[in-house]
Amino acid sequence: MTTAFDPIDLAGTQLANRIAMAPMTRSRATADTRVPTALTVEYYAQRASAGLIITEGVQPSPVGQGYPNTPGLHSAEQVAAWREVTDAVHAKGGRIFAQIMHAGRIGHPVVVADHPGDLHPLGPSAIAAKGQVFTSEGLKDFVVPREMTDAEVRATIADFATAARNAVDAGFDGVELHGANGYLIHQFLAPGSNRRTDAWGGSVENRVRFAAEVVKAVAAEIGPERTGLRVSPGGTFNDIDEPEPEPTYAALLEAIEPVGIAYLHVLESAPASREITLALRKRFSGTFVLNPFTDGPTSAADLALVEDGTADILAFGALFIANPDLPARLKAGGPYNTADPSTFYAGDHRGYTDYPALTA
User: Fold this and answer.
1) Is the pTM above the cut of 0.85?
2) Residue 341 confidence (pLDDT)
3) Of the residues 43, 44, 183, 355, which is catalytic?
4) Nearest to 280 by CA among 247, 242, 253
């Protein structure tokens, strides 16, 4: 029987186990240059025993930034800083993919105000998300995004590919494209945020086109074996309206299956998501990563999803914050520390450095 503690070949990248660290926003980059800091190096190196680390969302361009102090992969300074992170992880035997995330309409002009030019959040259509976003000036209502022109759509696809190349130059083992949680790729997939009538919207085939073209461009730039995609079918986070996700994701997999990417990462958002998960599992021929819907953080009980074949790799989020050595704790049956939510962001050490030694 296969277990989560067995190694796995991820399209040529050898992983020591099948436990992934899920991407989690940290907001610890420098405020002016969006460069990872020494704290970032320490944070990821501490978690190198994960079979695969997937980083926080990293913007591929200045306008792709959605939150304060998130890191980029669009400048030489950022690439050099990320190299320190990947070197530290590799020195401890870990493997790390960068999650490339364009926030699209989820952002605010205040967040990107210090970049050159008059930047404004972009989206597939000029439809504002309901809700607010945190900025350096406090909470702000989401603004109406500027509907992307065809030229801007194509330029953004190129930005993803360039960021992927920068990631490889920075020493990452690969990249994960963030097509979930209501960010730009997801905005194109969902009919509630994509009301276009051109080749990038309308029919299911047109709505999946942007995601598929990003996958193809990145795979062509760095190789499909270094490319992963995260999706959250039916998810409603960030005011996404996706009432009938099954046809959309079936069409998306049909479009990208010939590319042969390394993995598909599915984030479940409700108990009913499991039906879609199993359908995608059957359709996708590569490695299947699952961040399951659970009552609380993903836990040791969910390791059975690897044993029964639902997933090849299981992604853990919150438990990794206060348990950097999580794979060892899972194997030993604990003990586990509870993360303090107040320390998740803003560069606070307490959420992950003051943890007791593994005793069991």
Assistant:
1) yes
2) 65
3) 183
4) 253
